[in-house]
């Protein structure tokens, strides 16, 4: 869906100003204005309240670099965070810190590790360029359902080796855009361990294929949040109904809602970022994760 909505969300010079942020400027923005919702303030992410580091995770296909952030003291529920199409970058680290500050050990992964270490792109703005799309295209091809499922198992296993992760509580997953369906695959990869999955403006949740995410719900033990963008719903109005029917048939608790915002609204360097709806979605995720 990122491809389909890129052009219609273009706003010219104003958008360039919004998205043309350096890492330093973006971090300062997150700290100074306490970004709401999915990109909310990290509550001192650069200070002593949170501990963070880049980590390397061995998978069946190589070594994934990931950003691991958690409260500096104690053990907490683990979360596998799947970025959108632009990959692991400063915007995603801000988002991971925000969730970690609420009491979670968050692993934000580089889904493109087979091709390149992160950041593959510095911002969502770069994805919107011909060069950015050309760079990402072959990397996307490697993210088959089988590859994502293998990766998910490795990420959950990594979290279970960390002192900062409470092994007595379930692990969660959250994902954005292309990462939305990966949350379901995470729940299917380790069903006894993953207890919650939150998809925000997820693309490809209902594909009709035998291994479509909606078809996997019955093999999971998770509760779900499917937060759908209004323009995604306009194009595929039957998908929310299918998700509801599949979740009900599988006996899986699922909150499925169309938000009053467009595809990408939860991500602060997206042209569709909507602070109010992002905040509402973030709070619904926190409510879901309380059950871990």
TrEMBL record:
User: Which SUPFAM superfamilies does the entry mention?
Assistant: alpha/beta-Hydrolases (SSF53474)
User: Which top-level group of life is the source organism from?
Assistant: Bacteria
Q: Which PANTHER family match?
A: CARBOXYMETHYLENEBUTENOLIDASE HOMOLOG, CARBOXYMETHYLENEBUTENOLIDASE-RELATED
Asked if Hydrolase is a keyword of the record, the answer is yes
Q: Name the Gene3D superfamilies on file.
A: alpha/beta hydrolase
Query: What InterPro entries does UniProt report for this protein, alphabetically?
Result: AB_hydrolase_fold, Dienelactn_hydro, Dienelactone_hydrolase-like
Entries under Pfam families matching the protein: DLH
Keywords, sorted A to Z: Hydrolase
Domain Dienelactone hydrolase: start-end pairs: 65-290
Q: Does the keyword Cell cycle apply?
A: no
- Give the molecular function GO annotations: hydrolase activity
State the species of origin.
Novosphingobium aureum
Q: What is the official name of this protein in its record?
A: Dienelactone hydrolase family protein
């Amino acid at each position: 869906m990122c491809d389909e909505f890129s052009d219609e969300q273009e706003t010219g010079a104003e958008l360039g100003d919004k998205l043309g942020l350096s890492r330093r400027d973006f971090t300062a923005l997150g700290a100074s204005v306490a970004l709401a919702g999915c990109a909310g303030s990290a509550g001192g992410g650069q200070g002593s309240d949170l501990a963070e580091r880049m980590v390397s995770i061995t998978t069946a296909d190589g070594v994934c670099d990931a950003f691991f952030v958690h409260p500096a003291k104690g053990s907490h529920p683990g979360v596998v965070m799947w970025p959108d199409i632009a990959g692991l970058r400063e915007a995603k680290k801000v988002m991971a810190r925000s969730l970690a500050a609420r009491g979670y050990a968050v692993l934000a992964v580089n889904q493109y590790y087979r091709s390149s270490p992160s950041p593959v792109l510095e911002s969502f703005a770069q994805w919107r360029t011909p060069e950015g799309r050309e760079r990402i295209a072959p990397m996307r091809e490697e993210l088959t359902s089988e590859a994502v499922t293998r990766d998910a198992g490795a990420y959950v296993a990594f979290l279970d080796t960390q002192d900062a992760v409470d092994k007595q509580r379930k692990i969660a997953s959250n994902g954005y855009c292309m990462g939305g369906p990966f949350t379901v695959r995470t729940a299917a990869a380790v069903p006894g361990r993953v207890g919650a999955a939150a998809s925000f403006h997820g693309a490809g949740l209902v594909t009709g294929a035998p291994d479509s995410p909606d078809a996997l719900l019955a093999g999971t033990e998770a509760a779900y949040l499917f937060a759908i963008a209004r323009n995604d719903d306009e194009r595929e109005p039957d998908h929310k109904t299918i998700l509801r029917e599949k979740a009900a048939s599988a006996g899986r608790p699922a909150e499925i809602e169309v938000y009053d915002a467009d595809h990408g609204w939860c991500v602060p360097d997206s042209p569709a970022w909507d602070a109010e709806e992002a905040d509402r979605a973030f709070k619904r995720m926190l409510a879901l994760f309380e059950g871990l």
